[in-house]
Amino acid sequence: MNPRTRTALFWGGALLAFLVVLFVLRSILLPFVAGMALAYALNPVADWLEAHRISRLWAAIMILLVFIVVVLLVLLALGPVLVGQLIDLVDRAPAYIEQLQDLLGLAINTEVAAFLGLDADSIRDSVRSMLGSGGQVLSTFLQSLLSGGRFVGNVLSILIITPFVAFYLLRDWHRVVTWVDDLLPKDYADDIRRLAREIDENTARFVRGQLLVGFILGVFYAVGLLIIGVNYGLLIGLIAGLVSFVPYLGFAVGFGLSMVVAVVQFWPDWVMPLAALGLFMVGQLLESYVLYPRLLGASVGLHPVWLFFSLFAFGLLFGFVGLLIAIPAAAAVGVLFNFAVERYRDSAMYRGHEP
């Protein structure tokens, strides 16, 4: 067996073992992965403070204290309102679904069905069945989320363990990076460093850009829905901003929830539902033509389809932890794929036998 094959088998086996360990320990990884993500996001601030003659230890302490205070203030200001709206929405979800079924049943009249060549009663039954099943699944999911002991345990573990993990990683960031760098195989160290830099740049640009986009859109949608007077406007707007890290998903979720609530709330008046529709159309234009070009640009390199697949795949395998690691994993796979294509184009397999 030649050295290249041996090396490939070794690193392939190491990667497989790492993924198996992640899968086995996925139920306890959330606070540690969250701590690593927090340290990664705040490391540039620590580097800036260190460059201004503040020790790494004090930089880490200051950053974590400010972050914790900001989070606590936000939770104290918005937490009770959001939790109250979420609990109320869960309680009233079945009634909203039932009202929407009745409204759609009225909208699907015999003349419209006849024009389409369909039977009105069968359409109404299908719509009622579909909405009923979807509403039951959503209501069950939200109730289990609010009352589940695992959810409470995850929240407590994040509040207690994550700050400690983030603090120690911030303090020892450069030592950890140096230690890992020293373990790189000497023959491939330069290539690995180059790939790691590309992965880091892609991930950092995407995550920081998407956080800004999501924050701006969340505030825009929440304020707009509150002005219109849609019930749960603050909750719906912030949810739309939160899931905007996936292109078009924030728009789809926020638009769907706001339209259901607005139609049921204001029926038979269509002015406010149309206002909610206009709000999300403006938000989509703002996202597509202003925020994305200015905050992310075209150089991030994460295609929406690939991002969707990564989120679903890692979420299925590792749960919420998978959602946290999906974006850097997608960036890493994209960089490695481009590197593999580059090497393939330089190989004899691609170029063939040159004269």
Topology (SSEs and partners):
Layout lengths: L2 H22 L5 H22 L4 H52 L2 H7 L3 H28 L1 H23 L1 H10 L6 H40 L4 H10 L6 H18 L4 H25 L8 H15 L1 H26 L2 H4 L4
Structure characterization notes:
The protein is mainly α and 355 residues long. The protein folds into two domains: 155 residues, no CATH class; 114 residues, no CATH class. It has 14 helices and no strands. The chain is globular. The model has no long low-confidence stretch (mean pLDDT 77).
Largest sheet data: none
How many DSSP E strands?
0
The SSE string, one letter per element, is: HHHHHHHHHHHHHH
**Total individual domains:** 2
Task: Summarize this entry quickly.
The chain is mostly helical. The chain has helices at residues 3-24, 30-51, 56-107, 110-116, 120-147, 149-171, 173-182, 189-228, 233-242, 249-266, 271-295, 304-318, 320-345, 348-351.
Tags for this model:
355 residues; 2 domains; 14 helices; mainly alpha
